[in-house]
Amino acid sequence: MEVKEKMPGHDIIVIGASAGGVEALMTVVRDLPADLPAAVFVVLHIPAQGPSFLPGILSRSGPLVATHPEDKEKIEYGHIYVAPPDLHLLVEHGYVRVTHGPKENRHRPAVDPFFRSAARAYGPRVVGVILTGALDDGTAGLLAVKRRNGIAIVQDPSTALYPSMPRSAMEHVAVDYSVPLSEIGHLLNRLAHLQAQEEGAYPVSEDMDIETKLAEMDMDLLNSDTRAGKPSAYSCPDCGGVLWELQDGELIRFRCRVGHAYSIDTVLAAQSEQVEEALWGALKSLEESSSLSRRMLSKARENGQIWLARNLSDKLQETEHNATVIKQLLTKSVTSTTVDEADVKSTKETA
Predict the structure, then answer these.
(1) Catalytic positions, please?
(2) pLDDT by residue (tens digit) across 192-206?
(3) What CATH homologous superfamily does 12-192 map to?
(4) CB 214 within 8 A of CB 221
(5) Model's pTM, two decimal places?
(6) Could you give the 3-state DSSP secondary structure of residue 99?
(7) How many CA atoms lie within 13 A of 134 on its CB side?
(8) 3-state DSSP of 16-82
């Protein structure tokens, strides 16, 4: 059944998840009926390399068919559209976009541009759902849904395998429902049958329009000087460009000239990764310096060059001390594996 121009209910359901999301999504779609008068869209943080088995998993979990859509594919009721690997899933009026736009919160696909595009296209007809996940992707997107008078649903953090994403959403968005995972599917079915309000009183903001066009790789916008926010003192972790600061209610976000976007938590995480990379580079240089110093020290002692041997010994001792300090820092970093990496592994195992 193709989506019509006017529909009675909240018929655009957008769901975002990260760590632990495969099992959570299986639970939600299990409770959706075959005659659901709505279209369902899903973004799960998945690795860019290799195929995604999520459409097959979700199709087996409930009565609705799930697929990776083609770019500009028409939207239909009773269908689940799943973001493909390394591509953003965006919602336009009547069809979907699948683009290779700039990463947001270090992810592609990402939840924020996905939710933002749906809010821009369908306003009050949108139901945004945040499930289990790490960090805070989806918070800004759910805020956009609410600003267009859509409905915001968050998985009760106490029932989430990883509560960070739903907890962040609840801290920054006036959510309409915070319910256990087992109730979300039934709630979505009920909302799909309820009348949605008119969207005239909730216009699309200029910033929302700009950010959605960046995710769509709108060349006119990319070639212009139009930017949302104001320049900050920070640089983009991905491309090194200036980050522009956006004040989204109480939420502070950043976006660079080419479109990479970050929350504060994501910027901090990215900076931590840069520090780690720098430490590994420094350790490599120190290890090479130590190896060369040992070789030269041995030669100096063989040749009776006491003064040179003394200098080389002092340098070797200092270099080895610095290498030990860096190794200790790296040991702490390596042992704290990121949650998203763990989720990628669980996704592959489930598939």
Answers:
(1) 18, 45, 137
(2) 999 998 877 789 988
(3) Methylesterase CheB, C-terminal domain (3.40.50.180)
(4) yes
(5) 0.80
(6) strand
(7) 17
(8) EECCCHHHHHHHHHHCCCCCCCCEEEEEECCCCCCCCCHHHHHHHHCCCEEECCCCCCECECCEEEE
